[in-house]
Hut operon positive regulatory protein (Fictibacillus solisalsi), 144 residues
Amino acid sequence: MSLAEQKRIGKIAMLYVLDEGRQESVEELGWIHCSGKVGSMESNKIVAAIETAAKKNEVINGSVYRETHALYHAIMEALHGVTRGQVQLGTVLRTVGLRFTVVRGQPYEQPEEGEWIAVALYGTIGAPVKGLEHEAIGLGINHI
């Protein structure tokens, strides 16, 4: 099993969310992707926005449970990074403003390793008062 250097799905997703000009590197690999923005004091709204974008842009097939399940776990892992392990927002008076990218592809040289999905988040988190936030970043990767 070998992870190809030029196919590091997490690195590609992170670079894409930080610099939307990286889109062409995802497309060169023939991988599926989408991106968007979400802001909320409720984590369920963040999950819903990312899942909706992934389904709408056909990154996942919403009628196949394992694809939705894989995406959900990648989102939750990325949220753990943004929220420093405590996926709580509004209940502890925190809000986020995030850009997200979802990338789906085959990062391993062996096709038997199948497809993987990466969710990258970048933005701000803090008190629900403009100017009282700081940057945050998160990454989640899961096999499909």
